[in-house]
Amino acid sequence: MTVCGGDPHTAESIKHARSERTVVVEGYDTSLPEIDLQIGLTKYFSSCGEVNRVTIPAWKAYVSIRGEGAVTKARELSGRDVGGWNITVVRVLPPLLAKKNFPTSSRSHPKVNIRRPAPIAKRMQKTKE
Question: Full-prediction pTM beyond 0.85?
Answer without folding.
Answer: no
